[in-house]
Structures are given as structure tokens and as C-alpha cells.
Design goal:
Layout lengths: L4 H16 L3 E5 L5 E4 L1 H7 L3 H4 L10 H16 L4 E9 L5 E11 L8 E8 L1 H23 L2 E7 L4 E4 L2 H6 L7 E3 H7 L5 H9 L7 E9 L5 E12 L5 E10 L1 H24 L1 E7 L4 E4 L1 H7 L19 H17 L3 E8 L5 E12 L5 E10 L1 H52 L5 H28 L2 H5 L2 H16 L2 E7 L1 E2 L4 H22 L3 E9 L2 E8 L6 H5 L5 H11 L3 E7 L3 E9 L8 E2 L2
Parallel strand pairs: 17-19
Antiparallel strand pairs: 1-2, 1-5, 3-4, 4-5, 6-7, 6-11, 7-8, 9-10, 10-11, 12-13, 12-16, 14-15, 15-16, 18-23, 19-20, 20-22, 21-22
Helix pairs in contact: 12-13, 12-18, 15-16, 16-18
Length: about 600
């Protein structure tokens, strides 16, 4: 074979080994960026080759182990070491955790280019789990022996004699000579409900399957029950005949009682959550592991026997607007450690929906680091439905009230106002009649003046009940006109200004603000005694604001709420129907500020009007 053929064959052999190797292999740059990966590493981490290439090795490393790995990697970069190895945890794409033994080597380039890093990863998850299980078993054995709650036994199948270590008498409360009994006698002491389990364990033993572990109850001489965990192994002769069974038996009565208490408490908690309509949850942001209570599964419409969906799949569980708000709250909670409470809408698989109060708070590690969130979800669907019904009733009441206001306003203006005008004209004619005596003419003049004032008051009242300006000229003109009329009538100074109002404001929003302004000025005049007011109507991004401010001694809001008329409660109700808000800030000697806000989405081509 010629020497020229060796490099080609070596490359082919290297490629074959790279692709077929059972170890995960990666080629990285000196910054830890993956440049080349083999199929074994892709399968180990659950990513495709195109997904892994370009990622940094720290992106799928456990945060607790990555610090040690990074410190060694820095030594590798600095030339302190050429290679290193350690065992660390990895996070698969599906969120599962695995253990890998990592061997890293530095390959320096003779041409002076940046060196490359070779990483070999062996999946040692099963070994680590076995070691952990062994440690746990040893720990339990140690604890059991220390507590004196375990004994060894040997059962001779042919003679049916069972010999136990000394602790057996203590566990069963037997006399000293009871260390030895028969299998038949012991079977009689097994709880009747557990004899089938006990018998099945023995009859199922074979040379191929000689071991067993079962838990069952035994009756003591005083008829009290104890729980035993029996771990044994059968010995067979060359013909497959069982000769004896040896093993260890632990008294697990306290553990079973504790587990029963825990199960009972979990059942009580689950029932309490069901009755209250409250579910609980926990989310580990690092692994995207989600835990839901049974009640939360019921609220969402998720099968509790299946694992909950990871957080990345949660957008499909909520209405779009609710998800936007929840996502923002979750980000704040993770970034700033801020708890949240939101009313959000859940969309169930059968296309129905539920309203819930979602509460969340940071979940911290022992070191105080935020690693996720936990919280509760409370069903408030019935409350929301009741609020919707109440809002509908209130809306209809307000609509009926406005219709009645309009009718009365028109009656006052078109009928009573006109008739009073005719009376005033007739009185004026009588006053000018030369046949009327001077003293009578003077009396008629007074009646004419009173009639004119009454007509003016009725006209003003008619405008308050139904403003034609609001309908034909818009909210700014209507409010300005009302402030002028009300100021003249009450001898007040009212400074009105409107800024950045969108055109085409819906009639219900215009009418709501007009009524709030009327009630605010009436209440402030009555309860604060103010003589100067500032009224501001303005539009901002997606909202309309109205503020009424005075600089008097302050508004007695409690007195205003109990006063006659619509009052402050009516203002709040009108605004609530339109998803608006209402607030009052009043301080002694600093006056009162009434603020109303209603969300409004103007079109992108909306014109701006300044009143």
C-alpha cells in the first residue's frame, strides 16, 4: 500500500469513528462554541445537529456544575492545562436532566490559528442513579439499624422453620423464645387483607427471579398492627428446587403512618382547593419543569394523570390579551423578584373559558437565587359573570335614565320653556298698555322679571338634562358651554381646556365624561365651597382623561357619596361600564382633584382636535 493512500484512509476512518462512536463528541472553538457534533451527542442532548452547532456549551449545562467546568475551561484557554475531565449534569432539550462524564482536550494549531477544543461526553446517568439508589438504600439501612427497627431472617423451606435475629422479638413484642417459628405460624399473623400479597411474593420466586420486596401488615399478640418491609432472596439447588429464603425485614410503621398523614393532608388540601376553586402551581425556569395541583388541572381542563405542559406551551392556554399581561408580569417577577396578581382568562380545550385570579411570586434556591415561580390560580368565573350581568343591568338603567333625561329636557325646552316665553311676552304687552294703572304696571314688571328668570333656569336645566351641543358639536364644545353656563349661574370661575382629543370619540364615552363633569362640579360646589375650578380634558396614548381641580378646603367625599343625585358612586359606575377608572385626591387646605380615565383606541389615521 502506498504512503499517499494512508491520509485518505485515515480521514475516512476518523469520519467513520466520529459518526459511529457511542460517546458524544464535539469540536468547539476556544470560546466554547460548538462547531461540529456527532449523532451520539445529538441523541444524548435531544437536539438536532443544526440546532447544536452554533450553541455555546454553557446553554445546556446545569448552572450548579457549569462554574466548575468554566473554571477548568479558563485554565485550558490560558495554557495552564492541556486537558481535564469531570462529571457534570446536562439539561436536555425536553428539560430532563442527565449526567455525563466530560473529557476535554486542547488541540493547538501549528499554523498559529486559534486552537480547537475536543470534548468527549459519556452518558453516566444510569450509573449515577444506581449509586444514588445505593447510597439511599445504605442510608435507610443505617437509619433502620440505628433505630432498632430491622431484623434478619432465614427460612428453611423444607422444615418450614424461620430463624430471626434478636430485633425481631422487639418489633413483634414477642417473648425471647419466639425468635424461632414456622412459615405457617407467621402466615397466620399476617393481616388477612395482605395475605394475598404475601403469598404471591413467595410463589413467584424462580432461579431467574429469586429476589422480592413487599410491604404488608402483621398483627401483634395484642392485635395491634405494624407495617413491615420485607426484602429477601431465595436460594435454589441445581434442579431449581427452592431451599431457603434469607433477607431483612424493617418495621416501617411510623413511615407508613407519616405517609398516610401526608396522603390525608394532600387529600384535604385537594378537597379544600376544589371547594374554594383554587389551584396551585410551581415552575422551575431553568428546566422549564411545571407542577400543577389536581384542582388547577381541572380549571384548565388538563388530564391530571399527564404531565402539565411546559411554560413555552402556555400561550395556548390563555386569551391573547391575558397572555400578554401575564407574560409581562412573569418577566418582572423573574427579573425584579416582584410578586403579581392578575385577572386573566383561561381558554379550555373545549373552547370554553374561565376567569381566574393568577397570583405568583419568586421561587428561590437555598442561595437566594430566583430559579422560578410559584403561586395559585383562583376561579372567579361566577364573579365575572355576575359582574357582567350587573354591568348590563347598570348600563340599561343608565340608558333608561338618559332617555328620560332627554325626554324631560326636551319637554322643558319645547313645551314649558315656550309657554313661559309666551307668558313673559304677554306680561310685557300688559306692562306697555296705557290703560293699566301705574301701580299695576309696576307689579306686572316684577312678574315679567320673575317669569324671565324662571325661563332661563328651565333652559339651563334643560341643557343639563340634554345637551344638543354634545350631540352636534362634540364633547369639547359641550363641556366648554356647560362650564360657562354653570359658572354664570353659580357665580363661579371655571377654566376649561381640552388638548389632543381624537376625532370621532364614541357617544357613550362623550356622554360619560359630560355626566362626570356635571356631577363633579355640582358636588364640589356643594361640599367644598370652592369658587375657582380648573377642568382639563385630554387624550394620551390609548386613553382619555378628565380632571376637575379646585383649590379650596377640600371635598368631603363621604358626604358627597351620601348626597342626593347621581353622586360619586354614579360616576364610578358609569366609568366602570366603559372599563374606566375614577379617583379623588383631597387634602385639607389643598383642595380636591377628581380624575376620570377611559381607555380608547383611536384609528391610526385619527385627526387631532383641540377644543
Amino acid at each position: 500500500m502506498s504512503s499517499q493512500a494512508l491520509p485518505a484512509q485515515a480521514k475516512h476512518l476518523f469520519h467513520y469513528l466520529f459518526e459511529q462512536a457511542s460517546l458524544g463528541i464535539a469540536v468547539e472553538d476556544i470560546e466554547g462554541k460548538l462547531l461540529l457534533v456527532n449523532p451520539a451527542l445529538c441523541a444524548m442532548l435531544g437536539y438536532g445537529e443544526n440546532e447544536l452547532c452554533g450553541m455555546n456549551c454553557s446553554q445546556f449545562a446545569d448552572s450548579e456544575d457549569s462554574q466548575d467546568d468554566w473554571a477548568l475551561f479558563q485554565q485550558l484557554r490560558a495554557g495552564v492545562v492541556d486537558q481535564y475531565s469531570l462529571e457534570k449534569r446536562y439539561r436536555r432539550k425536553d428539560g430532563a436532566q442527565i449526567w455525563g462524564r466530560l473529557n476535554v482536550s486542547l488541540l493547538k494549531n501549528r499554523d498559529g490559528d486559534s486552537p480547537l477544543v475536543f470534548a468527549f461526553v459519556e452518558d453516566v446517568t444510569e450509573r449515577r442513579r444506581t449509586e444514588e439508589a445505593l447510597r439511599e438504600s445504605e442510608r435507610r439501612l443505617r437509619l433502620a439499624l440505628q433505630a432498632g427497627s430491622m431484623y434478619a431472617f432465614d427460612w428453611d423451606v423444607e422444615t418450614d422453620v424461620i430463624v430471626r435475629s434478636g430485633k425481631g422479638t422487639d418489633i413483634f413484642n414477642w417473648t425471647e423464645d419466639s425468635k424461632r417459628d414456622t412459615g405457617r405460624e407467621f402466615y397466620a399473623r399476617v393481616h388477612p387483607d395482605d395475605r394475598e400479597i404475601y403469598t404471591a411474593a413467595g410463589t413467584g420466586l424462580t432461579p431467574e427471579n429469586p429476589g422480592y420486596q413487599i410491604s404488608f401488615r402483621v398483627l401483634r399478640p395484642n392485635s395491634s398492627e405494624i407495617w413491615l418491609e420485607d426484602t429477601g432472596r431465595a436460594l435454589f439447588d441445581a434442579n431449581g428446587r427452592m431451599l431457603r429464603v434469607t433477607g431483612m425485614v424493617a418495621d416501617i410503621t411510623e413511615r407508613q403512618q407519616a405517609e398516610e398523614v401526608l396522603r390525608q393532608k394532600e387529600a384535604e388540601l385537594s378537597e379544600a382547593q376544589r371547594l374554594a376553586g383554587v389551584g396551585s402551581w410551581q415552575w422551575n425556569a431553568q428546566t422549564d419543569t411545571v407542577i400543577w395541583s389536581k384542582e388547577l388541572c381541572r380549571l384548565v381542563g388538563h388530564d391530571p394523570s399527564l404531565p402539565p405542559p411546559p411554560f413555552k406551551e402556555h400561550p395556548s392556554l390563555f386569551a391573547a390579551e391575558s397572555w400578554d399581561r401575564l407574560q409581562h408580569a412573569v418577566k418582572e417577577a423573574l427579573d425584579a423578584g416582584k410578586a403579581y396578581e392578575l385577572d386573566i382568562q383561561i381558554v379550555r380545550p373545549e373552547s370554553t373559558s374561565k376567569w381566574v385570579i393568577a397570583r405568583g411570586e419568586p421561587l428561590r434556591s437555598a442561595a437566594g437565587q430566583i430559579i422560578g415561580l410559584r403561586g395559585t390560580v383562583q376561579d372567579i368565573t361566577q364573579r365575572k359573570e355576575a359582574e357582567a350581568v350587573l354591568a348590563s343591568v347598570n348600563r340599561r338603567l343608565i340608558e333608561a335614565q338618559e332617555q328620560e333625561r332627554t325626554r324631560i329636557g326636551r319637554e322643558l325646552h319645547d313645551d314649558i320653556g315656550q309657554r313661559l316665553a309666551l307668558v313673559a311676552i304677554e306680561l310685557q304687552h300688559l306692562q306697555q298698555d296705557p290703560r293699566v294703572l301705574p301701580e299695576v304696571r309696576e307689579r306686572i314688571a316684577k312678574l315679567h322679571k320673575q317669569t324671565t328668570e324662571i325661563a332661563a333656569d328651565i333652559q339651563s336645566l334643560s341643557h343639563e338634562l340634554h345637551s344638543s351641543k354634545l350631540q352636534y358639536l362634540g364633547i369639547a364644545a359641550a363641556m366648554r358651554g356647560f362650564c360657562q353656563e354653570f359658572g354664570q349661574q353659580q357665580k363661579l370661575e371655571i377654566d376649561f381646556r381640552a388638548d389632543d382629543l381624537p376625532s370621532g370619540l364614541p357617544p357613550d364615552i362623550s356622554l360619560c365624561f359630560f355626566r362626570v363633569l356635571q356631577e363633579a362640579l355640582h358636588n364640589s360646589t356643594k361640599h367644598s365651597g370652592a369658587r375657582h375650578f380648573e377642568v382639563r380634558l385630554s387624550g394620551t396614548s390609548g386613553e382619555i382623561h378628565l380632571t376637575v381641580t379646585d383649590s379650596s378646603v377640600g371635598l368631603d367625599s363621604d358626604a358627597a357619596k351620601t348626597s342626593r343625585g347621581l353622586g360619586l358612586v354614579s360616576m364610578e359606575e358609569r366609568l366602570r361600564i366603559l372599563n374606566g377608572t375614577f379617583s379623588i385626591k383631597s387634602q385639607p387646605q389643598r383642595g380636591t382633584r377628581i380624575h376620570a380615565r377611559i381607555p380608547f383606541s383611536a384609528g391610526s389615521d385619527s385627526m387631532r382636535a383641540v377644543g
